[in-house]
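so my prof wants the structure for this chain in the tokens format not the other one, which i didnt know existed until like an hour ago. anyway here's the sequence
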Amino acid sequence: MMKQEVTTVSRLSVALMVLTSIHHAYGAIIYNTPWRLHILMISVPVIVFTIIFYYWFLKKGIRTRSLFFGIYLVLTLVASVALIGLFEGVYNHLLKNALFYTGVSHDTLLFLFPPPTYEMPNDFWFEFTGVLQGVVAIPLTVYFVRLVRALAVKEKKD
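here's what i got, hopefully its the right format
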């Protein structure tokens, strides 16, 4: 059972990080904000380590009490679920677009999403890839919780 959750969490995490890399590179170009490329210092290592850990688990088996599995869980929770998934995807894009397109006041939007860090929706592809981050983050979060629950059940049995 846990192998299925690790597989799904790993795939969603890598997909989210690839999407985030593309989104930020595109944003850096269209908004002439090269600082947006800083995300690559997070996304690329997360992609690499997630793939390495995943194939390590396939080859050696999932040893839930191993240091590698602990690092995998923390890396996935902090980088993929929390920072990129929930903050970047859900807050920065899903919420921003939902508020923007439902007519929330401009002052409220500026308070929640202050420039120059944030751009109000004005480019379809930038917003589309940003919203997709939030869309991917939702099942990633659900499957991460399932993985942690499966881990808890396994630990209880052992």
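also thought this was worth mentioning. The two ends are 15 Å apart (CA to CA).
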